[in-house]
Amino acid sequence: MSNISIDFFGTLDQNADFWQEFMKFLILEGHKIYVISGPWPKEIIEKLEWSGFKEDVHWNKVFSVLDYMSKSGFEVWYDEDHDSWYSQEVPWWFSKSRICEKAGVQIHLDSDKRFAPSFKSIATRFIDTTSADDKEQIRTWHRDLKAANTFCDWGDEEYWMNVAGGFVPM
After folding, report:
1. Beta strands of the chain (E only): which ranges?
2. How many domains does one find in the chain?
3. Cβ-count burial of 123 within 10 angstroms (0-12 exposed, 13-18 middle, 19+ buried)?
4. pLDDT score recorded for residue 84
5. 116: closest CA among 126, 108, 107, 106?
6. Which end of the chain is more exposed for a tag (fewer CB within 10 A), N or C?
């Protein structure tokens, strides 16, 4: 199955209920879900947990742009006046595509189009979660996953014992 990555800010923090169900179905289908976002890994995990996303239910691993930048030798600094971390701008916009390339990601979903151009040089498909066409594609994919993962086997005796008050079809 595929490795799929999703950004947190502007994507997962918008309509969390939808994303949680979608990601759960992706994992049930055998996909690996990676969350790639700007902050340090610990902060991303805290944001995910606070928003109701659970490890191994909705996501499998977290990747941090700041962590990637720091380990790649780019300067990373904290601005106390703005209470925020920063790094050099040009490499920042290439970071997610490089993380995806290293992690073997086939699809990356993100709301920030500034990352998109760097995906043209790698095998990972960038999906813009703010584009009407891409939103419709995601909704269709979600519907298909939901249909595949909520199938009820009408011959399932346990189902009938629990739901139908003990009636078992013959």
Report:
1. 3-6, 32-37, 61-64, 76-79, 84-87, 107-110, 125-128
2. 1
3. exposed
4. 76
5. 126
6. C
Residue 140 lies in a domain: yes
169 within a domain of the structure (yes/no): no
The pLDDT, as a whole number, for residue 149 is 81
Q: What is the mean pLDDT of residues 55-68?
A: 96
pTM: 0.84
Is residue 27 a contact partner of residue 33, using CB atoms and an 8 Å limit?
A: yes
Bridge partner residues of 44 (DSSP): none
Tokens 């009938």 belong to which residue? 160
Residue 123: which of 90, 92, 141, 97 has the closest Cα? 97
Radius of gyration of the chain from its Cα atoms, rounded to whole angstroms: 19
CATH code where residue 21 lies? 3.40.50.1000
42: in domain: yes
Separation CA 50–CA 113 (nearest Å): 26
Q: Is residue 16 part of a domain?
A: yes
pLDDT of residue 82: 73
Give the residue numbers spanning the domain of 35. Answer: 3-163
Mean pLDDT of the chain, nearest integer: 88
